[in-house]
Structures are given as C-alpha cells and as structure tokens.
Amino acid sequence: MRWTRHIFQFAVSTALIAFAPLPGLAQSCQTGGDMDDALKTTISSAAQRYFDMAAKGDTAALRQNSVPSLAASFAGVESAVNGRQAELAGAQAAVKSVFELETEAATSPGQAEFFCGVFGKNGQTQNSAIFNLNVPAGKYAVVIMDAASPKGRTSFSPVLELQGADWKLGGLYIKASEVAGHDSAWFIAQARAYKSKGQTHNAWFYYLEGRGLLSPLPFMSTQATDKLYDEFQNSRPADLPADGKPANLTAGTANYKLTELFPDAVGNDLDLIVKYQSPDASNSNQAYQSNVAVIKALVTKYPELRDAFAAVVARAVDPSNRDYGTLLAMKDIK
Predict the structure, then answer these.
(1) Rounded mean pLDDT of 285-299?
(2) What are the residue ranges spanned by the domains of the chain?
C-alpha cells in the first residue's frame, strides 16, 4: 500500500510558505478536474499574474499581493525570483495542475494532510497527489506551472491563499526542471546504472537529483515519487549523514564530522556539496586548508565520485552557522 506520503528535502531555489504551525486540521482537496470552470479559471489567472510579475522581476508587486506573513519575511521570494530571472524573463508559462485545498480547525494536533484525486487499492493513481502543510484554517490553492524559454525549462509553483475575494500569494517555489539539459528520467536512469555497477554513493546522489527534478514541491507526493521512493528507500549508503547524525571522515590525523552531502547543479555542471562541522569558519586560511583536506579525503574514500561529478564543494560550518566554502574541480583533486 502506498497511502503513506513521502516528504523529502530538496536543494532548490525556494520561498517557503510563511504560515505558522497550528493544531491539527480537517481538510479537503479538489483537483482541477473536480472544480467548476469559473473557480479553476480564477485560480489559474491569479497564478499567471504572479508569474508575469516574477518574469519581469517585479518583486515589489509580488510583495504587495502577498499574505501579510509572507510580505513581512520576503527575502526568500526575492532570492528565488532574482536567482531564476534569466530563465523566467521571456518565458512562456503553461498551467499543468491546479489544486484547491480547504482546512477546518480540528481537535487533534498535527499537520494538514490533503488527499487529492482518486486513490486505488495500491495508493496513488496517475492524477492524484498528497500535500502535507502546516497552515491556518482557510482556503488555499497550489498551481504547478511549466515555464519554457531558450534558457531551459523551469517549474514555477505559487501557493495561494484566499483572502476576501482575492487569491493572495502565500508561498513560491521556483526550480529548474532540467540540469545540464537532463531531466529527472535521465538522472534516475543513471542512478540505476550506477547501482547496477555497485557504485552505491553515485547511485544515491543521482537518485536525489532525479527525485528533486521529478517533484516541483517538497511537500507534495505523487504516484511517480512514491514509486521512486519504494525503489530506492533501502539504497541509502549507511556511511552517509542521516537523521541529524553526522558521518565521520578521516583526513590524515584529523577527523571531520560530515553533516550533509548532496548534489547541486552549477551552470552545466553537477557538483557534490559536502558540509562539515568546524570550530571557527571565520578563520578563512584554516577553513580553506580544512576544506581541501575534506575534499581530497572524500574522493580518496569514494573514488567512484570522479565518474559522476564535475567538482566537489566543501563548506566548513561553525556553531554560529557561519560557513566558508571551497570548490575544487575534479580534475584538480590529486
């Protein structure tokens, strides 16, 4: 049974929904096929209006049309829009999916979980979706748009909240739909190929990249994401950091606590990011030396990484959350 939702973390340009956690909620959901034409058109038109603002780089207008909680903390939206301006400018956007979500205050604690569309005996079907959100009682809409331009395809997904008669912007998720010209299917195929060769770390990282490209939203699951989860859920190498527990990496006489490893697209390259604990990242000379040591030790421990990544980026992160990063191209790692 795949009725259980799988929620993941993604490394994407994102502006998180600025809604406060509340007690448990009773909820309902309509897909675009369930809505009357007038409601679907109204929601789609609002999303298109916000896309047009983003494509013009008009973050001031986006802020003016946001719910108060998002408008008060708008840096994430500005960063997401500015970071993807090259792809959004001149792009043609098409609405792929529309969902209307409604919550009511309930008695038991927990997040609001929305089951949208038709579910079968094995869980999700081709047109269903599950959303997991922490939002106040009210009416919301999620719109998934595909924006195509000469710079590539971009997923543009506004989350709207109904305030009075207006659908205001409550959150915005913008991410590339392709990396270096490759979509989720390509990365998943590569992950399977690496897995068949016994390169379990490469397989896991490419699975993460493929999964991130497959789902436009970190709090949304579909039949495709559930099937992918079922395929790879037992493939995570045991020596990677997980569930807040760091992994150990020895470099010479030093031992480093790795906190995160994940792929990241930089231009047309796919790099591997490694974060680790540092006592003081403000000492740039020492942080640089430690970064280089971590990168070399990591590639020495996992030589398969040379086949999968263009570079490795090490980031020393200290207790005050300051960090210092160093990139080494794979060809320069000796």
Answers:
(1) 97
(2) 14-176, 184-232, 247-332
* Whole-number Cα distances in Å, 133 to 155, 159, 217: 20, 11, 11
What is the reported pLDDT for 151? 81
**Contacts of 201 by beta carbon, 8 Å cutoff, 6+ apart:** 237, 240, 302, 304, 305
Tokens for 199? 């390169």
Phi, psi angle pair for 189, to nearest 5°? -60, -40
With CA atoms as reference, report the closest residue to 153 among 176, 183, 170. 176
**68 CB-contact burial (10 Å; exposed 0-12 / middle 13-18 / buried 19+):** exposed
- If you write DSSP's letter for every residue of 199-264 in order, what string do you get? -HHHHHHHHHHHHHHH-S-TTEE-HHHHHHHHHHTT-S-TTS-BTTB-EEEEETTEEEEEEEEEEE
Between β-strands 323-329 and 311-317, what pairing exists: parallel, antiparallel or unpaired?
Answer: antiparallel
**What are the C-alpha distances in Å from 101 to residues 88, 114, 115, 176, 255?**
27, 7, 9, 25, 48
Digit-coded pLDDT (tens) for 93-132:
999 999 999 987 654 445 678 999 989 888 898 889 999 8
Q: Which residues pair with 138 in a beta bridge?
A: 103
Tokens representing residue 155 in the block: 């997923």
Residue found by looking up tokens 């995160």 in the block? 260
Q: Which residue type occupies 11?
A: A
Q: Does the pLDDT of residue 37 top 70, yes or no?
A: yes
pLDDT at residue 106, as a whole number: 54
The number of C-alpha atoms within 13 Å of 48 and in the hemisphere containing its C-beta is: 12
Tokens of 46: 């609002």
Distance of alpha carbon 299 from alpha carbon 312, whole angstroms: 9
Task: Quote the pTM value.
Answer: 0.78
CATH for 247-332, options being 3.80.10, 2.30.29, 2.60.40, 3.30.300 = 3.30.300
Residue 269, CA atoms < 13 Å, CB-side half-sphere: 15
Looking at residue 271, the DSSP 8-state letter turns out to be: E
